[in-house]
Design a protein that fits this description.
This protein is mostly helical. It is built from six helices and two strands.
């Protein structure tokens, strides 16, 4: 199983698909990298030679922010939004949807499980 930038790439998948297992590399970037290095996209990951794996890792690391660098960059952006108290930052702080989705009936994945609120009894005279 080849290892690229700290990520195990699946053996049996085509290299074009296997590269997308790296955080920050999607299908478009994978195709572009393979075109830049003149590698066939239908090659299986297990069939790559050591020098090809090294060239892939070197090219991706040099030209694209991936894995730890990209995760750090995203977290810094979110923390900046929180610090300047902008609307998006407040939504991040409160664990609510940031991009305008409704919260009355959905947003369970963001808000977490429902918190049941007990009803108050009405006293009658």
């Amino acid at each position: 199983m080849p290892r690229l930038l700290g990520v195990d790439i699946p053996n049996e998948k085509r290299i074009e698909i296997a590269l997308t297992y790296i955080y920050g590399v999607g299908p478009a970037v994978a195709r572009k990298v393979l075109a830049d290095l003149n590698l066939r996209p239908d090659t299986r990951a297990k069939d790559l030679k050591d020098d090809e794996v090294a060239a892939l890792a070197n090219h991706i690391e040099k030209n694209y922010p991936v894995e730890g660098t990209l995760r750090r960059q995203v977290m810094q952006n979110i923390n900046r939004l929180k610090e300047i108290y902008c609307y998006r930052g407040l939504r991040h702080r409160r664990s609510l949807p940031v991009r305008g989705q409704r919260t009355r009936s959905n947003a369970r994945s963001r808000k977490g499980p429902r918190k049941t609120v007990a009803n108050k009894k009405i006293l009658r005279k």
